[in-house]
Amino acid sequence: MIGYSSGQVILVMFRNILKICSTRRCFVAKNHFDKSRKLWCRKNYDVSNFEKLNKVVLSSRRLNDLFSRLTPQSKRNSGLWGTIMISGFFGLFKEKEEEKSESELIMTIKRAVLLIQRDDFKGAEQLLHLALKLAQDQHNEDGVTYIYDLLANLAFAQGHFNTAEKLFVNVMQRLIQVGVSEDDLKINHISLKLAKIYEEKKDDKKAEEGYKFCLKNLQGKVDVSLEDHDAVLLWAMSLDWYARFLLSKDRLDDALANFEKAYELSLKLHGEIHEQTVVLLNDLGTICYLKGDHDNALNYLTKAIEIGKHLPNMEDFSSVYVNLGNIYMQQKMFDEAKKYCKEGWQNANRHKNNEGIQEATLCLKELSKIMSS
């Protein structure tokens, strides 16, 4: 099907998810000299860019389980991302007498996934409703739950939060009815997305309760062993999302504490030379800047740049340069400011990053205005 194996489809989709969730950069806002002004910061979910960015949160391990009867190679092909987050979510598709009808159900879901990858969300939703009817006709309750979960993720990806909330709650209820415990990763995974939904709906109390619920449960699992990679990755994502929630509420001390935990965890998971490490150093520097701690802000951002020099394919790296240039400008160190804003422009131009070019150009224009006054 269009030249992709199911394992490859899963891998590409999940790489997109992780990239979008973790690699949009923070940078200091326009008119950046007033530190009380609002910061432009990457969000864990930017709803306006969902369709363009293939932002569908699907569990690749669950999809591998689904496709394994068709393509035995899929689990081996999917690599690290294929085992991320949730392991054997529903254990679907037990041996059945009517192999033809089961195959039709699997293939319908597979086609829906390919449409999601093409950004054809409407077509994918139509196919998933067809798959839901097939699963209901087969009395495949696990399959029904699984498809509801896919529909919930699809609504979530498009910013249809009321629909997504209802579907996720339905999925959670169905899981609990079959004996899944509250601290199971499946419940935590859904709870994290529900927390994000409540955040988007401005229900801050429910959002914070959801984030704290996830962090408490996952902390217990991580304390037992860092070898549980699904739990560790979900915990890292929960820390990151909660920190961004706190940052949006100007709770800078709490946000800083959670970003610090996420940074330490990133070092353990990925090592120092990794894009996620650069992102988190940039986040830490940004919060220190907002707190008026310019020395630590400079230290974090300088370290981020030194690491980023070893990551030539990091597309949004220019924003780190611009952040550092803006802080030097704030401190009236104009030669340093010009140096880093110019490097930011060159980096953005090399990656054809129009947003980065605009950021760097603004920095250079502001600097030119100040120096000529």
| H/E element order | HHHHHHHHHHHHHHHH
What is the helix tally?
A: 16
Total strands: the figure is 0
Q: Helix proportion of residues, in percent?
A: 55-70%
Rg estimate, integer Å: 22 Å
Rounded mean pLDDT score: 77
The rounded distance between the terminal residues' Cα atoms is 62 Å
Uncertain stretches of 5 or more adjacent residues: 1-98
Largest sheet: none
Strand content: under 5%
Estimate the global geometry from the Cα principal axes. Answer: elongated
Overall SS class: mainly alpha
Gist?
This protein has 373 residues and is mostly helical.
Describe this structure in words.
Residues 1-98 have low confidence and may be disordered. This protein has 373 residues and is mainly alpha-helical. The protein has 16 helices and no strands. The longest helix is centred in the middle third of the chain and has 21 residues, at 204-224. The protein has helices at 6-23, 60-67, 74-78, 99-117, 121-137, 141-157, 161-177, 185-200, 204-224, 229-248, 252-270, 275-290, 294-308, 318-330, 334-350, 354-372. Helix 13 (294-308) runs antiparallel to helix 14 and helix 14 packs parallel to helix 16. The chain is elongated, with a radius of gyration of 22 Å.
